[in-house]
Structures are given as structure tokens and as C-alpha cells.
Specification:
390 residues, alpha+beta, 4-stranded antiparallel β-sheet
């Protein structure tokens, strides 16, 4: 459960750096003015349908079956109980007698907040390791609020705190759905979460705002340690609708090794199953949501105008098949991400690290040199993806 502390800061750790944490930083890569900021996307964790986008209240766990990376999985999303404040808002820490509880699922708000947390994690020296080699991030709620404002999104501090609490308390269970029932993960996004008050240097007793301290789950931590992530455009990602965000990440991972000359052919029922989108009462309305999401991905400059083929049974539409061709800008983005990953793997090897090995520690001076080298490296830059209104 989220705990409250009074001594949290957003300063970087003073101990040794880990090469893998430095390589996770996208801020060290030279970004020219006008280019989209970059963040990192994970494979299974980010493409799993672990959010609920419906309007109805759901008080029991949701079971889903989906496919990712050529494998079948089963996923369970567990609801969260939040206490309502007497003013009608949410406050997990409320103690007044007038408060009551409501059951919620992680949804669009939580997905957006998680993306902002991820962006903060890619900044210089924001990630650190504790004594158990678990990845730690400290940040202020005001930081999240500022980042949301940059893309014309608004959440109060209470809403941000609630979203973080839901991401902390909602346990996601993932197993392989191929008869083996191999357990992949049973954890929330942030299994450890603390809130506290930021200390203002030289001003004892002054409240500097709410700070948060969190740890990532084992699947995400493993992906960071083993460099299993892909660099993507943050502005493009955060401004897309939920299904559009899933399509963007799915395409990014598909083309990690796939030929950019080959379009992706995918049907509507697969998108419904794998994205976690909420089906409408009428199938044609669900199809309309998918087409709108594809149009948003197209408008963002990720794909060329998509092709559509309808499959009908009698007078009803049974399915739609979409052919998605990567745009020139997206192809350039994928190529740049491939180069960045290859460079990261080479750097880890040069610093003495090994694939699937432990965190490779480096002293502060070596870490500074590594950041400088990454910033000065010539990486072919893609044409920026088209900007969209939030």
C-alpha cells in the first residue's frame, strides 16, 4: 500500500552508477531543436492489455487472452479500492468518518501518468539502484503536472496521486497461455510507492510539494537491465488515443527485426483482443473506434493511408482487415532506434557488462564520460513525426 514519508527528494543518488541505467537515458542523446522528445517502450509489459477503458464500474478481476511476440498469454487485471474524500474526490489516505470506498480499474488516466513517469525516468541521473539492486525513481507530482501541460493535458495533484496509487495497488497477473501456464508476472506497475514532502534547502518547515518514490516491477527492471526496450517519440505516443498508443507500440516492436519493406496485415478482432479496448454494444461502433484510432496513427505520420477490406456474413460485417504500411518518417525512426540499441549493446560490452547479466557498476567519473560520449555520438536522426493536437 502507498505509504507517506516526510523526507523525500528528487536528487540523484550519490553512489556508483550502473551502465544500464545510463543507457536507459534518452536525454543524453543529442536532440536537435524541433525534434520530438524520446522515451522508451517495453515489449510485453507495454503491449499487454492491462488497462480498462470502459465507462462502467467493474468490481471483479478482468481476465483477458492476448498474443504478443508470437506467443499466447492470459492476463488478469485486479481492481483497486480507493477511499472517497468528503468533498467527492479520491484520497487513499483519508481518515474521516464521512469517507467511503469505490472500486476502480487502471484506465486511460493511469496509462498516461505511467508514460510521464517513464519519460522522467529517461532523464539524466534520475534512476538509481538501492542496496538490493532494485531500480528506484524519485520525482515530484508537480513534474508530472508540468509534463502534462506541455501536451495540453490537465490533472490535479490529487488525480495524479490517485493514478499513481492505482498503478501501485492494481496487481497484473500474466501467464503463458499454451498449456504450460508458465507464470510471467504477478505484480503492479509500481510495487513500492511512497509519498512525502519535498524538503526546501535552507528553509526548515517549508513544504516544497508532494514527492513520490517508487520501484518498477521485476519485468520492467529486467528489461532495463538487459536493454530490452525500444526508443519511441514521446509526444507522438502521449497524444494518441488508447488504441492508437497500442498500435504505435505494436508497430515499433514488430519492426524491431522485421523488414520495413513489408506492411503489416492485421484484423479488427485481433486488435480488439490484444489492445484491451472496450467493445461497444454494436460491433460496427467498435469498428468505427478502430478506424478512428488508425486514422490518428496515420495523422501522426506513423503509417501511410491504411487499406481496409471488409469481411461480411450475410448483411453483417464480421471483421475488417487492415494493411498498415510504415511511413518514411516512421521507417527513419525505427532505423534510428536500431542504431541506438546496437550502440547501447556495444557500450555495455565495452564497459564489461554481459547480456542478461547483473547491473554493471561504474564510478561517477566514468558515468559522466559515458554520458558525454553518448551525447556527442553521431546518430542518424529521423525526420520528426507529424505533430498532433492533444
Amino acid at each position: 500500500m502507498a505509504q507517506t514519508s516526510t523526507k523525500l527528494t528528487n536528487s540523484a543518488s550519490t553512489g556508483p552508477d550502473a551502465v544500464q541505467l545510463l543507457l536507459f537515458e534518452t536525454e543524453n542523446l543529442a536532440v536537435q531543436q524541433g525534434e520530438p522528445r524520446r522515451t522508451n517502450a517495453f515489449g510485453l509489459w507495454d503491449t499487454a492489455p492491462r488497462f480498462f477503458f470502459g465507462d462502467d464500474m467493474v468490481e471483479t478481476p478482468i481476465d483477458r487472452h492476448f498474443q504478443a511476440g508470437g506467443r499466447s498469454y492470459r492476463l488478469t487485471i485486479n481492481p483497486v479500492s480507493l477511499r472517497l474524500r468528503s468533498d467527492g474526490g479520491d484520497d487513499d489516505g483519508a481518515k474521516d468518518d464521512k469517507s467511503r470506498w469505490k472500486v476502480v480499474m487502471p484506465g486511460n488516466r493511469e496509462q498516461i501518468v505511467e508514460e510521464v513517469v517513464r519519460l522522467i525516468a529517461t532523464r539524466r541521473a534520475r534512476l538509481s539502484l538501492d542496496k538490493h539492486d532494485e531500480i528506484v525513481l524519485r520525482f515530484s507530482l508537480h513534474e508530472i503536472q508540468k509534463e502534462l501541460a506541455k501536451v495540453n493535458k490537465t490533472l490535479s495533484h490529487y488525480e495524479i496521486r490517485d493514478a499513481l496509487t492505482i498503478l501501485h495497488k492494481s496487481v497484473v497477473e500474466v501467464t503463458v497461455d499454451d498449456g504450460t501456464k508458465e507464470a510471467v508476472l504477478s505484480s503492479s506497475a509500481f510495487p513500492t510507492l511512497h509519498f512525502g514532502t519535498k524538503k526546501v534547502k535552507g528553509q526548515a518547515g517549508v513544504n516544497g510539494g508532494t514527492m513520490a518514490y517508487l520501484k518498477f516491477n521485476d519485468l520492467v527492471a529486467s528489461d532495463i537491465r538487459n536493454l530490452r526496450y525500444r526508443m519511441v517519440s514521446y509526444e507522438t505516443l502521449i497524444c494518441l488515443p488508447p488504441v492508437g498508443r497500442w498500435i504505435y507500440k505494436m508497430l515499433s516492436w514488430y519492426y524491431e527485426a522485421g523488414s520495413l519493406d513489408e506492411p503489416i496485415v492485421i484484423n479488427a478482432r485481433s486488435i480488439i483482443r490484444d489492445s484491451g479496448m472496450t467493445e461497444r454494444s454494436r460491433f460496427r461502433d467498435t469498428l468505427s473506434t478502430i478506424r478512428d484510432s488508425l486514422a490518428a496513427v496515420q495523422d501522426a505520420g506513423i503509417i501511410e493511408p491504411f487499406e481496409l477490406e471488409r469481411q461480411v456474413q450475410g448483411r453483417s460485417i464480421d471483421d475488417e482487415i487492415y494493411t498498415l504500411t510504415p511511413s518514411a518518417a516512421f521507417r527513419a525512426e525505427i532505423e534510428m532506434a536500431r542504431v541506438a540499441k546496437a550502440q547501447a549493446e556495444d557500450t555495455l560490452a565495452q564497459m564489461g557488462g554481459t547480456p542478461h547479466g547483473p547491473f554493471q557498476r561504474v564510478d561517477r567519473l566514468a558515468g559522466t564520460r559515458l554520458r558525454r560520449d553518448r551525447a556527442s555520438r553521431a546518430v542518424e536522426k529521423p525526420a520528426p513525426l507529424l505533430e498532433r493536437d492533444a
